[in-house]
């Protein structure tokens, strides 16, 4: 059984957290994540969950307290955006090394400067190399379901690394859509209880977590962390299959939308994929063979699987909602890397769009497709959508 | 009242084989404080001498549950542990009672960790925060901190022909913590074991956050003979440089009043970090220091006498 | 590096079981050695409380041990310094109220023991 509720993306994630009923939730507000912690705080205030919350004084302390709670043995969560992620970055970077399965919803927002509260992916793209699982969500429904997927994945005994569940700031976090909500009991059974093999509150079995490791051991310990990331890729699909039985939805590494016979494909993350689908449907009516590939799992990145999926596509446009200054854009980089082994590579074009919340419209997508279909692409050139000259 | 025999007979949390400097008093502070806990303890440790020297992988000196995360967040980590403990208690996942302790050096407390400490005190987590105060960033070789005393030579504010070293007095961390209206805050030392033990007892019994600042003479960077650690700890108290006092529910109680306070020179002499003060042209610095110490002591006496709440 | 474990064999996340530092003998740092004269000890426990290296073991003695003035000292009594860990800082000798600990150069101690 499930019910349909009109929810914003922020509400949907808070609803998932209500159903998970973590031991500890650490809250510090930042636009546009604020409604996530507000809705959750209201659940606590109304007794809908018996989670202990810590309303901390900064994001640095938010992640620090979450880590303390998680190391103590609790299922612990916090949520953030942009500057908040930047402020807690030092601690965020330490979590995978400690092998703590913290799940953190992220509401993507542009990084300062200039200060801006709207969506782009520059916040989480700055945290792709440190060992967090990263799952992007197109809409509130995906954000809701990805929370359960991320939790089971992070806490899996062969994984035990943290996970971020992303949704686009304002576009998704504050936009209301119908979301299919699972029964509380179904979620409770799916997520179970965290069952750590060692934890600080187990005072009869003391251990040390977070020692100093010098050149003789640091490298070895980081190699273990990479193993966990490799395992996460496999187990993502297993957990996804389990979740699929409850939701009826699929949890592949990426969604393929009308790409089987496509002459041109756009690859884009998150909410812009929805816009692209509309554009594709309309262009298909006009006989244009266009399609979409939307990565869901960004870390670990499914290079081989993407290569196999797009190897026969003549031309691909990769749309990034952030710039990696002085290098190829983050998603474009990954797609280029995915294609390296192919002898006959698809043609590629990199586009930057939507920084600081600038809208991307269906017509922008259509124009990109027309450009791709014309074959006039240059893999060395980074193009900008909707930018005034 | 516990005796020294009773205190040393308690199980110590630290095993030998740690790599704190010869003559370092941090382990003494840690052992004495934890001896005062009649419950199992869980430790959150800020980056610093204690953390580094007690856990060089694959060696850890800790016999008790211990965690290090980063430099400036021991209080926030402890808050997370304490909240997990509350959640486990509420959900029936745990029966044992525990005491949660955060240890930080003065850099991790007065300076970079100050915000996390203030936040944790304000929220009222039940934990003990201990600063082992060696008056500078000693793990990295004597850099200035907010706890470094007036006139001290550090590598970031060195003494020189145009410099007396640090020109500011240290933060009064005990009163700052007490001003959060926490039930217990105290100033203690490494050498006065009974005083430190009793303060830790009161701290653990407090219904809310508690704070202890323990002076920890640093043989390496105060630059004195390793045997003299406890001697300098005593001199800090006998000169009123570091009075032993506590603030219970906002009210000051001085635990020890020297019958005749010694001149500050007695604490300064023999310490390499103050050697430059004994040059004739720097006499005025010692005089100024003496004046400040005496004024602070008078102020403390008034606080005790008036019982005005901090 | 031969005796060091490879990455497959280390505990996850650099976690460590308790008190592995016992395997790290800091006694090798010592340049001065405390020589303990049990006949002059009053077992006050000051040296034990002040030892930064937990290198002065104690035991509980019901029958008592002979110390200063030929007296029997019962309860917590100190034993010989544990030279596996003593770093030779000299705090014990400095603070001993009966001066029953003296510091000698480590080489002298080694010479004396090999004679």
Walk me through this protein's architecture.
Chain A is α/β, with parallel strands linked by helices and 389 residues long. Chain A has two domains: 2-247, Rossmann fold; 255-384, Rossmann fold. Chain A is 40% helix and 20% strand. In chain A, the strands form four sheets. Chain A has a six-stranded mixed beta sheet, with helices on both faces. In chain A, strands 5-7-6-13 form a four-stranded mixed beta sheet. In chain A, helix 10 crosses helix 13 (362-374). The termini of chain A are far apart. The model of chain A has no long low-confidence stretch (mean pLDDT 98). Chain B is α/β, with parallel strands linked by helices and 310 residues long. Chain B has one domain (4-306): Rossmann fold (3-Layer(aba) Sandwich). Chain B has helices at 4-8, 26-35, 49-54, 74-90, 107-111, 114-123, 173-178, 193-205, 219-223, 229-238, 265-268, 283-306, and strands at 41-45, 66-68, 99-105, 128-133, 159-160, 163-164, 184-189, 210-215, 245-248, 251-254. In chain B, helix 3 links the parallel strand 1 (41-45) and strand 2. The longest helix of chain B is centred in the last third of the chain and has 24 residues, at 283-306. The radius of gyration of chain B is 19 Å and the shape is globular. With 115 residues, chain C is α+β, with helices and mostly antiparallel strands. Chain C has a single domain (28-114), classed as Alpha-Beta Plaits, CATH 3.30.70. Chain C contains three helices and four strands, in the order βαββαβα. Chain C has helices spanning 46-50, 91-95, 106-114, and strands at residues 32-36, 58-66, 72-78, 101-105. In chain C, the strands form two sheets. A two-stranded antiparallel ribbon of chain C has the order 1-4. Chain C has a two-stranded antiparallel sheet with strand order 2-3. In chain C, a hairpin with a 5-residue loop joins strand 2 (58-66) and strand 3. The model of chain C has no long low-confidence stretch (mean pLDDT 95). Chains in contact: A-B, A-C, B-C. At the A-B interface, strand 3, helix 3, helix 5 and strand 9 of A face strand 2, helix 4 and helix 6 of B.
